[in-house]
Amino acid sequence: MEKEALAQLLQQNYLHVIDQIRNLSDRELLYAPKDKWNALQQLDHLIKSVAPVNMAMGLPKFVLSWRFGIANRPSRSYDALVDRYHIKLQAGGRASDAFVPPMQINPADKEVLLKKLQRLVQKLVRKTLKQSELSLDRYVLPHPLLGKLTLREMLYFTAYHASHHGKSIEHGLISLN
Question: Quick check: 152 and 137 in contact, CB under 8 A?
Answer without folding.
Answer: yes
